[in-house]
Each structure stands twice: as structure tokens, then as C-alpha cells.
Amino acid sequence: MSDGTRAGAGIAAPARARGLTAIATGEAPAGGTSARNRVLFALSGVRFQARVGVEDAMESGTMRLLIGTVLLFCAIACGGGDETGTTPTSPTPTSPTATPITFSVRAEGTINNWTEWGGGATTLAKNGQAFFSKTGGAGGARGFTVATANATTGDVLSAGTNFDTWQYANQKDALVRYLDSIANGTLVLVGVADDAGFQSTSGTAAVIAALEKRGCTRIREYGFRDSYAVIFIAGETTPKAEAFSTTASVSIQYAVTPR
Asked: How far is Cα 171 from Cα 136, in angstroms, rounded to an integer?
């Protein structure tokens, strides 16, 4: 090494020492304490060290210490990204899957038991919890019982309106008007308890026609004290479920997925 070079190194030694001390101890550079300024400060130290004597620095191990310090500052300043320096994106949240709501109808005629006047029952339920459950006769469910629910949310709109079509002939017309008043898209549940009064022809044809208009295929088979139930959506022409029996109660169900 020439005298001039050694002289330059001797003159720069104090400045070099101050620079190394500042880098090693994390002393704030003149430009501020931001991560960018720290990295620039560290890199300038590398250039300065190389200029005043690379050979001397490598022999003393100072360069290795300095490079390690610079890499540490780079890791701190650039942390939080992947190997390419880009910030990872959070996964797109997914909406939880809605739980289906199951509506059910259990209907029972008196099943040709001539000695049990006022028999049978109708039970309407949502997820297994009855919101209407009454017996025939004076129990409040004789004839047709109709309930409605929102087919989109599963909310019960009407918990059960009874039409005693066995006792009162005008209730058949009232039933038809009620069915016609239900808004399209509404879920409708129907059950017959005890007896529907179809042995009286007054108004019977209108009830059968109203249900067949909604796609019901078993109502025309109904006889004295039989069991009948149906679930349909107003405005559609195919029921979601329908059941009829002359010898036992019937149970049907339909699930709505809220949206």
C-alpha cells in the first residue's frame, strides 16, 4: 500500500470509526430515522468503507461485520413481505353457509273411528318446534288449517288460520278466498284434522279446484275423516310435498335455505 493511500486511510479513520459506530449502534442518520434512511445510511457506509481501504477492512473483519449490520437493517426495513418484496394479501373471507329451516305438517283425520267425535289433530312446526298444534272437533283444528311463511327468510308469517269446513259450509268459500289472497312466493302449509266436510257438496268443488290449481293431486281422493297435508309455494303449480291416507296420520316436510 502506498504512503498516499495509507495517509488517506489514516485521515479517514476517525470518520470511518464514527460511521461504523453509528451503524452498529443504530444512531440516527442525518436524514431521519425512517427505515429508508437507515438503509441508505448503512449502504453509504459500505461505499465509504470500500473507498478508504477495502483490503485493510477485509483483513480486520470489519467489512464482514458491516455487511452483516447492513443486512440486518435491510431485514428490519423490508420485513413483512415475501421474498419478492411484495406484501402478502389476506385471504378473501367467505360467507358462512346458511342453515336450512325445515317446516313440517302432521295431519290426522279421525281415521273412520265413528265413536271418537272430535278426533285427529294438526301440528305445524318449524325445525321441530310446533307453532300450531290443536285437535279436531272443539279443539280448534277441525277442517283445514293454513299457515304461511316467508320462503326466502323462513320467518313464519301466519301461525295457523283454521277453517272449520265440517261445521260451516261457508268456511269452504272463506278458505278459497284466503288461499287466493296469499302473495306469490309465500310458503303455504295445509293440514286437515278430524274431517274436512267433503260429504257435503256445498263449496267442496271450489276447495278441490283451488288446491288443484296449485298442483295438488291427492285432494280429490279425500273422503270422510281421512288424513291430508300439503306444502306449496303460492304461484307455483307443483307442491313441495303432499300426502294422503285413509288409515293413518300423514307427515310431510320441506326445507327452506335462508338467503
From this structure: 15
The candidate with the shortest Cα–Cα distance to 225, out of 136, 161, 105, is: 136
Question: Is 179 in the same domain as 223?
Answer: yes
Residue 170 has pLDDT above 70, yes or no: yes
The distance from CA 175 to its chain's CA centroid, rounded to whole angstroms, is: 37
Same domain, residue pair 161 and 217: yes
Q: Are residues 241 and 135 in the same domain?
A: yes
pLDDT in tens, 36-87: 555 454 545 545 454 545 455 445 566 566 666 656 655 565 554 444 555 5
Cite the DSSP H helix spans in the chain.
3-25, 35-60, 62-77, 170-181, 204-213
Instruction: Report how far residue 108's alpha carbon sits from residue 195's, in angstroms, rounded to the nearest whole number.
Output: 9
Answer whether residue 96 is part of any domain.
Answer: no
Q: What angle, rounded to 10 degrees, do the helices at 204-213 and 170-181 form? A: 20
Q: Which domain holds residue 64?
A: 3-77
Q: Is 251 left (phi over 0), alpha (psi -120 to 50) or beta?
A: beta
Q: Is the pTM of this model over 0.70?
A: no
SS3 215: coil
Answer yes or no: is 92 within a domain. no
Could you give the CA distance from residue 151 to residue 258 in angstroms, rounded to a whole number?
8
CA–CA gap between residue 214 and residue 144 (Å, rounded): 16
Q: How many domains does the chain have?
A: 2
